[in-house]
Write a structure and sequence with these properties.
Blueprint: H1 2-8, H2 16-28, H3 33-43, E1 49-52, H4 69-76, E2 82-87, H5 93-104, E3 108-113, H6 121-132, E4 142-146, H7 148-161, E5 166-169, H8 170-174
Helix pairs in contact: 2-3
Length: 178
């Protein structure tokens, strides 16, 4: 039964050139092929944007934002993919976006507000729409990069409320940083 289930799996019937193309795209997005394939199966399309939570970006919130160089270098290599962010709950998304662009020197396109863990579905959706609507992105075109240890519950709720392609753990995405 296991052999039959594996043979019936959609990825087992993909032509080799398609697999190679998707592997190349996963590399362009800076993620493992397994994560890319899971997002593709869930969303039914190639992710057009990556939405980062504050913890996923390894941001240190002090008087001024600070982004580690390995994170900046990883994101600077991305091609054909919009960068979006969620601002911490206590900050204005526009001011956060401006500071994030300045600190990272990366072309983050939009920012929404990171909702509280107990936020309603309406608040979750509104938070995501603020980040996605200016770019006219559907949820299935966006992968959420979050820190599973501290944001597992809220990231799953955001993914469901916004019908996002899926959640990628920041440690898997960036590699575990020391």
């Amino acid at each position: 039964m296991w052999a039959r289930a594996r043979a019936d799996h959609p990825d087992s019937r993909l032509p080799l050139p398609v697999v190679k193309m998707r592997m190349a795209r996963a590399a362009e997005l800076g993620m493992r092929y397994a994560d890319y394939a899971a997002l593709y199966r869930t969303g039914g399309r190639d992710p057009a944007a990556l939405l980062f939570t504050p913890a996923a970006l390894h941001l240190r919130l002090a008087r001024r934002l600070d982004m580690p160089d390995p994170v900046r270098r990883h994101l600077a290599r991305l091609r054909a993919c919009d960068l979006l962010a969620l601002a911490p709950q206590s900050e204005d998304p526009d001011a956060f976006l401006e500071e994030l662009r300045e600190v990272s020197a990366l072309p983050f396109r939009t920012a929404g507000m990171m909702p509280a863990p107990q936020a309603s579905w309406q608040a979750l959706g509104a938070s995501l729409r603020r980040a996605l609507d200016p770019l006219r992105l559907s949820g299935t075109a966006v992968a959420l990069v979050a820190h599973d240890l501290s944001e597992a519950r809220i990231s799953q709720a955001l993914c469901t409320a916004g019908r996002l392609a899926g959640v990628v753990d920041r440690d898997a995405y960036f590699g575990i940083m020391a």
